[in-house]
């Protein structure tokens, strides 16, 4: 059985067929989905998704909603987030982090929101799901300063040295659609070399489609229903049996989220 460690099931792309997507995913062997909203305005929909489908759920403010092309967040949204976390008791905090790919990104605001959300995770003893796009060293700097209990580095695309630093801090690295493309040599090398105890699988649905769907530019919608097929491709790249890879990566998710650790 598989666990999708990073999915946006509450996204509008699934409004027309969300029930079918969840049903088909379960039938395909996906035992759990971690759903991650990106803005305080999305929290109510994420809660409804959790209640209807039993998803593992995070609450967090995505860096692209802080200083990117989307609706800018306000600093008082941090208080809203803390209230939701204390009341709803989510499984983790996320998706949070830094994105230095966004044109004209606001470093000050991104770092402020990231640090404040790490503090909430620390105070509530929750793992975090990290957005780390061209920002690995800056994210590591904050993680060393504000100690959290680990989590997942979503869609990891850093160097082997950076990967080792995340592992030292108790993080698993997330691999998904990108690693199914043969030309993604660095990501596939990481998938092969990172300890299996620090690997989780993800879809980031509806984003980051795997090679068998085409690219994001083609408009393909990724879905948790594809996780077993993605996972089988990752297992092959890792030179592991599919069953062993599924069991190990799912166990990693459960270990990271277990409060007693």
Question: How would you describe the overall organization of this protein?
Answer:
With 261 residues, the protein is of the alpha/beta class. It has one domain: TIM Barrel. The chain is built from ten helices and eight strands. The chain has helices spanning 18-28, 43-53, 64-67, 77-88, 107-124, 136-145, 160-168, 185-193, 227-238, 242-257, and strands at residues 2-7, 30-35, 56-59, 92-99, 127-133, 151-154, 171-175, 199-201. Strands 1-2-3-4-5-6-7-8 form an eight-stranded parallel beta sheet. The chain is globular and about 45 Å long. The two termini are 23 Å apart. The model has no long low-confidence stretch (mean pLDDT 95).
Describe the secondary-structure layout.
Blueprint: E1 2-7, H1 18-28, E2 30-35, H2 43-53, E3 56-59, H3 64-67, H4 77-88, E4 92-99, H5 107-124, E5 127-133, H6 136-145, E6 151-154, H7 160-168, E7 171-175, H8 185-193, E8 199-201, H9 227-238, H10 242-257
Parallel strand pairs: 1-2, 2-3, 3-4, 4-5, 5-6, 6-7, 7-8
Helix pairs in contact: 4-5, 9-10
């Amino acid at each position: 059985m598989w666990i999708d460690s990073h999915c946006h099931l509450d996204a509008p792309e699934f409004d027309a067929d969300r029930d079918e997507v969840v049903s088909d995913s379960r039938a395909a062997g996906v035992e759990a989905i971690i759903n991650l909203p990106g803005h305080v305005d999305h929290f109510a929909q994420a809660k409804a998704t959790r209640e209807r489908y039993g998803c593992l759920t995070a609450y967090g403010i995505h860096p692209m909603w802080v200083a990117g092309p989307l609706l800018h967040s306000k600093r008082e949204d941090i208080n809203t987030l803390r209230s939701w976390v204390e009341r709803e008791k989510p499984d983790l905090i996320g998706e949070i982090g830094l994105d230095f790919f966004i044109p004209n990104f606001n470093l000050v605001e991104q770092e402020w929101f990231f640090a404040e959300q790490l503090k909430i995770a620390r105070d509530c003893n929750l793992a975090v799901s990290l957005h780390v796009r061209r920002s690995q060293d800056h994210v590591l700097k904050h993680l060393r300063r504000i100690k959290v209990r680990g989590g997942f580095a979503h869609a990891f695309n850093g160097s082997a040295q950076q990967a080792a630093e995340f592992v030292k801090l108790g993080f698993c690295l997330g691999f998904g659609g990108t690693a199914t493309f043969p030309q993604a040599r660095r990501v596939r090398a990481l998938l092969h070399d990172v300890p299996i105890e620090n690997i989780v699988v993800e879809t980031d649905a509806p984003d980051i489609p795997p090679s068998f769907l085409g690219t994001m530019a083609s408009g393909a919608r990724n879905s948790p229903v594809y996780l077993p097929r993605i996972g089988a491709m990752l297992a092959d790249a890792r030179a592991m049996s599919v069953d062993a890879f599924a069991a190990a990566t799912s166990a990693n998710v459960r270990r990271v989220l277990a409060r007693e650790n």
